[in-house]
Design goal:
Elements (H helix, E strand, L loop, with lengths): L3 E4 L3 H7 L13 E4 L4 E6 L7 E5 L17 E3 L10 H6 L1 E6 L1 E8 L4 E9 L5 E11 L5 E10 L3 H4 L5 E2 L7 H4 L7 H4 L11 E5 L21
Parallel strand pairs: 4-10, 5-10
Antiparallel strand pairs: 1-2, 1-7, 3-4, 3-6, 6-9, 7-8, 8-12, 9-10, 10-11
Length: about 220
């Protein structure tokens, strides 16, 4: 799964690495420990090429209980077309989730201890997870936009720590993923594979990241085990 990630760059850096974006909120602040149910920076396929902030945890439009979102932070690439919670969004409501790194935990020693590792691009550049989004309307008429991150089988680097990894899209695949047209799974499924391990690095980091309260630059500093 992908349960924590980072976006530590500012709006200018996002614009540099995603030059086709037309709107980026200037109040984007560095985040070193993004956790489920918090706002995340999303580019939905609504034709605006704009960064918006959605809640992390997909809330299907048909549900009566929005708390379901806390259990739907990830969606497995292999079953998107089958699951009621994801299949409509897969065809119609896709998005990029902006990030520049993510955390996974390795089980060590007595199997009760978990050591966090931080994964990022070798050049530290920001990137985009493949995501799905939804709009949920409350009985009172308020609207809530939410998103989930798609996961897949891990590459060799991530496999040493965890059995899943988030889908990181290649920039050349953004136009297809963000198409405003309805797309069948057959047109998209080959995008949802593990990102090349040779373009990424990983290292152990402090268990400070275990607490959602610790949104600190120190979270992404390498440590010696």
């Amino acid at each position: 799964m992908c349960g924590r990630f980072t976006l530590t760059v500012d709006a200018d850096s996002i614009q540099t690495h995603f030059p086709w974006l037309e709107t980026i909120p200037q109040q984007v602040a560095p985040r070193y420990n993004i956790t489920p149910t918090q706002p995340i920076a999303v580019v939905p396929n609504d034709g605006r090429n704009a960064v918006d902030h959605f809640v992390w945890g997909l809330i299907p439009f048909w549900t009566k209980d929005p708390s379901i979102g806390s259990r739907m932070i990830n969606a497995r690439a292999e079953t998107l077309a089958e699951k009621n919670s994801f299949k409509n969004a897969y065809k119609r409501r896709r998005c990029l989730v902006l990030a520049d790194g993510f955390y996974e935990w390795a089980i060590v020693g007595d199997k009760k201890t978990k050591q966090p590792y931080y994964f990022r691009m070798e050049d530290s550049a920001p990137f985009a997870f493949a995501g799905l989004w939804e709009e949920w309307n409350s009985p009172e008429g308020s609207q809530l936009k939410s998103a989930t991150i798609i996961t897949t089988e891990p590459n060799q680097l991530v496999r040493s720590v965890h059995v899943r990894m988030p889908v990181i899209l290649h920039p050349e695949d953004y136009p297809l993923w963000l198409s405003t047209e309805e797309k069948p799974p057959s047109a998209l499924q080959n995008l949802l594979t593990a990102y090349p391990a040779e373009e990424m690095i990983a290292f152990p980091v402090s268990t400070s990241v275990n607490s959602p309260r610790n949104d600190l630059p120190e979270n992404i500093e390498p440590i010696q085990l």
